[in-house]
Design goal:
It is a single chain. By secondary structure, the chain is mainly beta. 5% of the residues lie in helices and 38% in strands. The chain contains two helices and 29 strands. Strands 1, 2, 3, 4, 5, 7, 10 and 12 form an eight-stranded mixed β-sheet that branches. The radius of gyration is 37 Å and the shape is elongated.
């Protein structure tokens, strides 16, 4: 059966659609690198500042944006029909009153919300471009009714000349919700010969009632095979040890999911924010020596040793934490005991806080465990006994046992010396 004109037309439309579809939105499923950039729009209670020239083709306003305009502000309810929400960025990242990019979509053209040039990339490397979006319109206001326009954002990655589209994807329609709802969207692509790209976010639809949005935390970073750091000494990502023990060593292992050749650079940190390369630590396994305070570890990974020093081209493992648990405060003895040999033997007592308990031993170190988990101990005989305080939550012990003594004084005996005279007295009546 032949193909008629209508069928040919449908086939051509489908073919062209397939040719111009460059990909779908999605996230890196492996390990990610440090952000090449992370745009959180700063903080403060004033409007703005205006974005640098070329970043957007929307107009900046210091106040509530009308169609085709934008502002930067720390809350989103710039109209009574918009949700009240703070920005998406945690305060620990850019302080209180963090700002978001708030856009009122253009009623006549789709518009370009955001544009960013990125240079210094590595060839044949995968990257992730992501952002947090929120439809600020509150349908509970009833203002738009059935005429509500959803937001629909297109992510695009172009070559540096902006003539070749390298990858693109759409969020699809995001209708207004009855509560503020930040959602993250991302696009993954791999460079071939490109060392520079242009990132864009566009509005797929024209403006109208409801097509208004907030954008925050735009991030661009490398993406690679998943690398996981673990240790034979621990389950999960944390190894905990009591503070009073001697400095500890722990062996860490990096496992990367792919089959390529990988190069590693281990790093350590005391706060999980500022990281330092560990000199000579470049194999999949690393033994951390003489640790006595909380320390965080991770490893950078690259498929070329030269890329380990380039955050654009290397990725990071999960963070492994070595934590030190504090010892409990030592208990307080109510005092040594002294009794007579015919007295009932009393209990020896060490008082502690509610988070601690006591084990009793026969010696200051080592020795025999005489009684566990009790603040009071009744000894079998006189002598010195040793009370060890430990935490009920962590099991960590105080490094010094408290000696408490029981002294048993024997009863005195009466000694009689000399001649014993017995006198018999008879009384007659």
């Amino acid at each position: 059966m032949g193909i008629n004109f209508f069928q040919k037309t449908i086939f051509l439309i489908v073919l062209l659609s397939a040719i111009t579809s460059f990909g779908q939105l999605g996230f890196c499923t492996g390990s990610k690198g440090s952000p090449v950039f992370d745009e959180n729009f700063g903080n403060g209670t004033n409007y703005g500042p205006q974005l640098p020239a070329g970043t957007t083709n929307y107009s900046f306003v210091t106040g509530s944006p009308n169609d085709g305009s934008y502002t930067l502000f720390y809350r989103t309810n710039l109209y009574s029909t918009w949700h009240y929400s703070l920005d998406h960025t945690p305060d620990t990242t850019n302080g209180t009153n963090g700002k978001a990019l708030i856009v009122n979509a253009n009623a006549n053209t789709s518009g370009e919300f955001y544009k960013r040039f990125v240079t210094g990339l590595c060839v044949n490397t995968t990257f992730e471009f992501s952002a947090w979006l929120m439809n600020v319109y509150n349908p509970g206001s009833g203002f738009c009714g059935a005429g509500e326009k959803p937001i629909n954002v297109r992510f695009e990655i172009w070559d540096v000349t902006e003539t070749t589209l390298l990858s693109a994807g759409n969020t699809g329609d995001i209708i207004g919700s009855f509560g503020p709802n930040w959602q993250q969207y991302g696009l993954v692509f791999t460079t071939s010969s490109q060392t520079s790209v242009v990132l864009k976010m566009k509005n797929n639809g024209v403006g109208g009632c409801g097509n208004d949005l907030a954008i925050d935390d735009i991030v661009f970073r490398s993406c690679g095979d998943l690398t996981t750091v673990s240790s034979p000494s621990a389950t999960g990502n944390t190894y905990s040890v009591c503070q009073n023990l001697s400095p500890v060593s722990i062996t860490l292992q990096a496992t990367t999911s792919g089959t390529a050749t990988y190069f590693y650079q281990w790093q350590s940190s005391s706060d999980s924010f500022n990281w330092t390369d560990i000199s000579g630590a470049n194999s999949p396994n690393y033994t951390a020596p003489n640790l006595n305070s909380m320390t965080f570890f991770r490893t950078k990974v690259a498929q070329d040793v030269a890329n380990l020093s380039n955050d654009f081209c290397s990725t990071l493992s999960n963070v492994f934490t070595v934590s030190f648990l504090s010892s409990p405060s030592n208990g307080i003895s109510i005092g040594d005991k002294v009794i007579c040999s015919n007295d009932t033997i009393p209990a020896l007592v060490l008082t502690t806080d509610a988070a601690s308990s006591v084990n009793w031993f026969s010696a200051a170190t080592g020795g025999t465990l005489l009684l566990a988990s009790s603040n009071a101990f009744t000894p079998p005989s006189g002598g010195t006994y040793y009370a060890e305080t430990y935490s009920l939550a962590t099991g960590c012990i105080h490094p010094i046992r408290t000696p408490i003594s029981l002294s048993i004084v024997p009863l005195p005996t009466v000694a009689i010396n000399g001649t014993i005279l017995f006198v018999l007295v008879i009384v007659l009546w």
